[in-house]
Amino acid sequence: MPAIDDFATLSASPEGPIQHAATVAPSDTNDLAHVTRALYLGAAGDVAVQMKDGTAVTFVGMGAGWHPVRVARVMATGTTASDILGCW
Fold this sequence. Notes:
By secondary structure, this protein is an all-beta fold. It has one domain. It has strands spanning 21-23, 38-43, 45-51, 56-62, 65-67, 71-74, 82-87. The strands form 2 sheets. The chain has a 4-stranded antiparallel beta sheet, with no helix packed on it. A hairpin with a 4-residue loop joins strand 3 (45-51) and strand 4.
């Protein structure tokens, strides 16, 4: 039986909980299918990204857990964190 969604009639908001998540395969050439609202890291490390605005940065020493960042790409080069989910 499908799960009941008591909030199905409400519109999504940027402050609301995420509704989608996908495993991130870091790539130096491929953008994510969706710009994220957050990244979830299963294991801590550095995360090299291209931000939504195109700026390339490396977040050094990010802890495991949730990070509210809007990224278009997670780079393979420079990323040591693992078990990454892109959430939107």
